[in-house]
Every structure is written in C-alpha cells, then in structure tokens.
Amino acid sequence: MNAAALPGPRLLSRAKLPADTVALARFLIGKIVVRELPEGVVSGRIVETEAYVVGDAAGHAFRGVTPRNRSLFLERGHAYVYLAYGISHLLNVSSEAAGTGAGVLVRALEPLDGVPLMQSNRGVVGLRDLARGPGRLAAAMRIDRRLDGLDLCRRGDLWLGDDDRQNDEIGQSVRIGITRDAERPLRFFLAGSPFVSGPRALNRQ
C-alpha cells in the first residue's frame, strides 16, 4: 500500500479526553492537530503541551470569565485561541467541565501532512522549526481568533485526531515564559523529539 492510500487520523472523541487538565496535557502528547484549509489539509503530531489548571495564577481563566477567555470555560475539547503580545496566535484546548476555566496550551508539533503548505504559511523552508513553538505552529496552520471556540471533537476547519501511535517516554518540566506559578511542573513533552521547543536544560530526563 502506498503512502497516499494510508488512512488518516480518526477524529478524537470527547469521551476519550480526560476530564482533568493535567491528565489531558499528558494525553494530548502524540495526538494530531488537523487543519483543513481551502488549499488542502495540514496536520502535525503534538509533541509538547502545558497545563493551566483551575486556580492557576498564570492561566487566563484565573480572574473569571471575560469576552476574551470565555472559550476556556467551555466543555473540554474546544479551541481557545488568543493573540499573545499582539504578535502571535496561540492554540489552547479547554480542559474541564463546562463552566470551569482551565486549558492546555499546544506548544509544538511534528509536521505530518501538508508540509509545503505549512512552509508557505510560515515563509520558511526548514522542517524542524516549522511548528516548534506555539506561535510558529499557529502560523504554520493558519490558526487565528476566527477559530476561537471551535469544537475540536467535530470535523471542520480545525480538529483533533488519533492514529493509535504509542508514545515513547513523556518528559515533564516547569512551564516556559511565565512569571506567576512559574515553578509548577506542568509542561509535558515527547522525550527525544527534535520538534520540542524550549531550552535543552528543560528537555533532559
């Protein structure tokens, strides 16, 4: 069977998503983000996440519901997309029951499908840095605020998939680029993956 005939990822059902932010952050390692664009489909395997738990001072839900963060309070499995520092969009997955604000930041992807389109979206050629970091992956997949609130457990413009690939060792460290609750070990990554972001010191096991 040739590569073109291989089946793509299956839609990840909400029932399979752990109803706990930290558990979801670990669970999402190895799962697939699929973006359907007019020019074609792009996808990438999640290799790095960060959990922003209930009551987390570093989380956007900490001070309650606002027009900006209301997607974090949707039932687990919805997209929360925001613009960071007026520069980069970031993709998060809501992670608790409806009405409880928490989420998982998708920090890095291993590019899978539609690499030439992702390269065009980013304006770069190299594969390793194509989606290595939350802003880069959003640019590569053309993710912006128009996708905020989207149900990622339903096929559409953006969804989560699974191909039953077994994870290798999952590493854990403190989160990156925050000042509040900065020492909490709530970052997870696929150990040994060249597509993981962050300093080498945090990626050692």
Description:
The protein is mostly beta strands and 205 residues long. It has a single domain, classed as Methylpurine-DNA glycosylase (MPG) (3-methyladenine DNA Glycosylase, Chain A). It contains 3 helices and 9 strands. A hairpin with a 2-residue loop joins β2 and β3. The N and C termini lie far apart (37 Å).
Short summary of the structure?
The protein has 205 residues and is mainly β.
> What count of structural domains?
1
Task: Estimate percent helicity.
Answer: 10-25%
Average of the residue pLDDT scores: 93
**Structural class by secondary-structure content:** mainly beta
Corresponding CATH superfamily: Methylpurine-DNA glycosylase (MPG)
Key structural traits:
mainly beta, 3-methyladenine DNA Glycosylase, Chain A, 205 residues, 3 helices, nine-stranded antiparallel beta sheet, single chain, globular
Please give the structural blueprint:
Elements: E1 10-11, H1 21-27, E2 32-37, E3 40-52, E4 79-84, E5 88-94, E6 103-111, H2 115-122, H3 134-140, E7 158-162, E8 170-173, E9 187-190
Antiparallel strand pairs: 1-7, 2-3, 2-7, 3-6, 3-9, 4-5, 5-6, 8-9
